[in-house]
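Quick one, T. Sequence first:
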Amino acid sequence: MYATERQQLIEQLIATDGRVAVVDLADRFRVTTETVRRDLAALERAGAVRRVHGGAVQRGRASTAEASVAERTSRRATAKQSIARAAVDLLGDRLDGALYLDAGTTTASIAAILANGPHPAGEVEVVTHSMGVAQILAGAPGIGLSVIGGRVRGLTAAAVGAQTVESVQRLRPDMAFIGTNGLAAGFGLSTPDPDEAAVKRAIVAAARRVVVVADADKFDAELLVSFAPLSAVNVLVTDSVPGGGLAAALEDAGVEVHVA
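Structure tokens:
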């Protein structure tokens, strides 16, 4: 296979899956990892992809670009389910206390585990501003549910606005599972929409323990609005070991990293 043909296939894989790994590509095309790295370097020079630690992701889009819930649900679904299971494992042997679930497809996977099991015994009060998460948890055994209202964004099915922020500020959940669109060394956690950022900022400030659930596609991405520094995060649950400057920044901030 010619290099140009291989690079076209790599670009198609990234467009479909959002991310590729050097080792996986080397196995797939029966070439060395150095050959794959040269392919990725060529694609990056052409502006087709962005190289990250261990592989490459789709080229960075505008800082305000945001996929819909439907689009994000099918993207890297297996990775999100693994992250969700590892996140639920952080709860220990019993479900006790209050848990906040942010809006997002990974937090929706956490909600599905809590609703359908198996999950830790006991009871927990879940608070959310996500209409999708609320729908999943409504009527689930052993789960108390409180839903925070506000203006609902159609793109994310999440309540936003001053009313939502004020309601979150009156809470003190034991743990919050937070989603993010970007996770970068200097910029911290970020998202495209200012209203979503305001709600996330309030959740981070309210929770006793902040757990970020994010797949590796979010690494090194900087979206329009930063809503929390890495130092505000207690735990990161992800599907790949962060590398480079992000890894150093997480360590400096004292963030526990759990790889699903």
